[in-house]
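Predict structure. Chain length: 313.
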Amino acid sequence: MQSANLGSSGLRVSDLTLGTMNWGDTVDEIFAEEILRDFREAGGTTIDTAYGYTDGAAEEMLGEFVAGGRRDELVLVGKAGISRTTGSRVVDTSRGTLLSQLDTSLRRLRTDHLDLWLVHTWADDVPLAETMSALEHALATGRARYVGVSNYSGWQLVAAHSILQQARIPLTANEIEYSLVERGADAEVLPAAQHVGAGLLAWAPLGGGVLTGKYRRGVPADSRAASGRHSGWAARRLGGTSDSIVDAVATAAEGLSASPAQIALSWARTRPGISSLVVGVRNRSQLRTVLASAETQLPPQIAQALDDVSRVG
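Prediction complete.
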């Protein structure tokens, strides 16, 4: 695994980021420890979590490993602004809530700072200046080393950057959904990020499993699209233009003696502006497939064909 600077900042991240959204749900402590160990042995440094993941279980599990030592070798990415403590999704990006959630995350993670702290999503009901003031305070008090946003559109990203710029604070990153089956960010988010110098962390680079090809003959009973909290999100990525994209990925995989997942990740990791791919795996076998993508080189003509079949508009 390789590492690079996140956008124009000095923060270095591995080109694969280990996501923990399912820790405490489909990934128990034993699997989490094995996955984290294999990820670290492969050269991975960057781990992504959030206050709202599995009602805090993900952060607490990760905190067990952080407490074991080698904190200085990890790049911890955290997010605040979304919770599910009431049983439903609650968005609150007010200054008070963001800083309260940050303190809770630090306690769960057993660390005094996050390397990168992000506002988890945009909210219309809170002034952007107030939201950005929480990021400024986190930096000033040493609870975060770098700050950014998540799931912001292009204009939202530029607006946030403008406010932070007044305090001479760089907006370091935007964490967005991006894959061969979800390229909506191409139109304005990628250009906006390059304009302000923010790096992009791409979540769901396999389209919720769609790009692995496992849905080509139906919906497996144990898949994300079949059941669970995110079933609707995954199911919406099935059918339509996704089918032709998945077929193209499968054809490329067969020709290169690789798995469809390797092809899809190899394409995504070389996209301009993408600093790291946030990958969530449920077992060591899935992680091995993800890690193998680092050795998969797409010939220019195949990369172009995938680009053409997946391009929006």
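Summary: Residues 77 and 176 are 14 Å apart (CA to CA).
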